[in-house]
Amino acid sequence: MPDLSGIVKAYDIRGVVGEQLDEALVRDFGAAFALLVKTEAPTVVIGHDMRDSSPGLSAAFAEGVTSQGLDVVSIGLCSTDELYFASGSLNLPGAMFTASHNPAKYNGIKMCRSGAAPVGQDTGLTEIRDTVEQGVPVFEGSRGSVTERDVLGEYAGYLRSLVDLSGSRPLKVVVDAGNGMGGHTVPTVFAGLPVEVVPMYFELDGTFPNHEANPLDPRNIVDLQAKVRETGADAGLAFDGDADRCFVVDERGEPVSPSAITALVAVRELVKEPGGTIIHNLITSTGVPEIVAEHGGKPVRTRVGHSFIKAEMARTGAIFGGEHSAHYYFRDFWRADTGMLAALHVLAALGEQDGPLSALTQDFSRYAASGEINSTVDDQVARMLAVKDAYAGKSGAQIDELDGLTVRLPGGAWFNLRPSNTEPLLRLNVEAADRTAVQALTDDVLALVRG
């Protein structure tokens, strides 16, 4: 039996094309996915990004689905949140071919059940892996059919229906699509809005010739920052490769933290539903639950990862959720993540008042943060234990292990240390009152982590 543990991740399937992932294997994944969902729907919706390997892999997946008697609706080139829109609006299970921000040699599959409900290790992905490893059973009935459908216009119209920019002052916004799917979706979503778009790297190119399509890395937003300053734009937006995440820079070209965006959008959503529940993962700023509570909302803290966020949103009826990684989840969007909708909220908030974005977001940025710092270690468990033991003896330190190790210190400073699921890494995030305090705490923890 093949061992697929190296490519079946916690939330998706991802690997190097031609080495770990090929059309024959993907065909089996399609058949296994069909077996998983065939009792809930007779059809699967499939989309793909701009990588060279994506059309062939998505077609192979469709062959696997139809081999089990289910039909396929192919929506072709799309962003991941556009695929979620199709799954939600059509109430069909779906599969998206993308490796998000990973380099060109990678590809992968993000899957969901009807209504964009997540498929992760505990919600079907393990079952799919087991089916492929053990051999997909042959279906004796007739094959399904494949039809094509373009949902880009419907997707754009739906997003615009959720955020009213009709009263906005005119805005100039630089958008860096990173040669990813934002170059496909932004022109249609922004059509007719009072927004002048200055496009950067809108040409779809899965080799990412200008920079990696990963705005979480500061090196990849340098061009955007420079263009915002050069053009005198009101804001800048950067999308990742599959355009489900959106990063924001202000009129000075300075990054706005995803925690500040989470708080800003949360406040806007709470105006629509006073007293609503807002989800935030445990690495978002302490300012997020503070601001949510101050505006009458109910903040709920969760583990990192979309399957946990979506499950908690379903359990609590939450109206919105945000993560430190710039994933933003909306109940009005089938609890799925869409950076495009978050971007429209930011532009609407900016356009409703006369001040610059830096002044608007200052109210939502209360603390200093380190960003995520990765350390390669030989023994994750031993290094985590060393850090825990060191801080357990400190007066007033509060320790919890909801997701990795979180330590809160007197005065409000805190850090979270989490092991990577796929690499020999420990990921550190630190927050404190100011940059000096952040650096001091970061240095202390890294000394323990790196020995």
UniProtKB/TrEMBL annotation:
| Cross-referenced InterPro entries | A-D-PHexomutase_a/b/a-I (IPR005844), A-D-PHexomutase_a/b/a-I/II/III (IPR016055), A-D-PHexomutase_a/b/a-II (IPR005845), A-D-PHexomutase_a/b/a-III (IPR005846), A-D-PHexomutase_C (IPR005843), A-D-PHexomutase_C_sf (IPR036900), Alpha-D-phosphohexomutase_SF (IPR005841)
Where does the Alpha-D-phosphohexomutase alpha/beta/alpha domain start and stop, copy by copy? 8-134, 155-253, 262-366
Q: Which residues form the Alpha-D-phosphohexomutase C-terminal domain?
A: 372-446
Q: Which UniProt keywords apply?
A: Isomerase, Magnesium, Metal-binding, Phosphoprotein
A GO MF label: intramolecular phosphotransferase activity
Q: Which CDD domains match?
A: PMM_PGM
- State its cofactor: Mg(2+)
GO process annotations (BP): carbohydrate metabolic process
Enumerate the NCBIfam families for this protein.
PRK09542.1
Similarity-based family: Belongs to the phosphohexose mutase family.
The name under which this protein is listed is Phosphomannomutase/phosphoglucomutase
